[in-house]
Design brief:
Elements lengths: L1 E5 L6 E7 L2 E10 L2 E10 L7 E7 L9 E5 L7 H4 L1 H6 L8 H18 L4 H16 L4 E2 L1 H7 L3 H8 L11 E2 L2 H7 L2 E5 L5 E5 L10 E5 L2 E5 L14
Length: about 240
């Protein structure tokens, strides 16, 4: 069912596409002392299978390229079911806000880095991906794009385990300043109990924290002028 509405935006219209599951219902009629039972086809307005899409904008080729969508099955494990409405019928992809997407990307990269703490190669991949994302001019990202283009193997798998199926291909614009704030520090715990926390940028350039492989072990090297010293209960 398609309904057309006036929009609060000048020169725009609001279009809503509805779909409801069909089911058989009984209709009982009493007339002149006689009962009549009819089997009818009806549409269920309250079913969890109902779907909707709201589009708003001017009647132009580029006027209605985004929509707000209701799809209670979008989280289904079976992708054929989850993609039926958004991907196959609307020919669209799920999109989230830039702020939500930036927070999501930073969170899954941190979690994936922690999850792969016993896999040096995977952690190095994730650190390299963070560095590339920080300086990239690519305007829009998705978790799936990061996993497929910047990561591989265990690193990619670790990233994808921390997102829901519907979030993998959701596209968003990266807020670089917010992303830098969310992945601002790298924390190292050494075998002797020393904890080193360094700004992420200082692990990339000359004169910052460097990591060397010596006799099959990773060694952290850093040298600098002490500006402040504290005694604390926790590192």
């Amino acid at each position: 069912m398609i309904t057309l509405h006036d929009s609060s935006l000048t020169g725009s219209k609001r279009l809503i596409i509805w779909t409801f599951p069909q089911q058989e219902v009984f209709n009982l009629r009493l007339r002149a002392g006689q009962a009549r039972l009819e089997l009818l086809e009806a549409f269920n307005r309250e079913s969890s299978l109902r779907k909707a899409a709201l589009l708003e904008g001017p009647n132009q080729p580029t006027g209605m390229l985004t929509a707000r969508v209701l799809d209670l099955q979008s989280t289904a494990t079976d992708r054929a079911v989850a993609d039926l409405w958004i991907v196959k019928f609307l020919d669209a992809r799920l999109q989230i806000s830039d702020t939500e997407g930036t927070h999501l990307l930073a969170r899954v990269l941190r979690q994936a880095h922690m999850q792969t703490r016993d896999d040096v190669d995977a952690q190095e991949q994730i650190s390299a991906a963070i560095s590339r994302i920080r300086v990239s001019n690519q305007p829009r990202w998705s978790i799936g794009a990061v996993a497929n283009t910047l990561l591989s193997g265990a690193a990619a798998a670790a990233v994808l385990t921390h997102v829901r199926p519907e979030e993998i291909n959701a596209v968003f614009g990266l807020d670089h300043s917010r992303f830098d704030h969310l992945v601002q520090y790298k924390r190292f715990q050494l075998a002797n109990g020393v904890v080193v926390s360094a700004p992420f940028v200082s692990t990339d350039g000359e004169g910052g924290v460097t990591i060397r492989n010596l006799d099959g072990e990773r060694h952290l090297m850093v040298e600098g002028i002490i500006e402040e010293e504290q005694v604390r209960t926790r590192a």
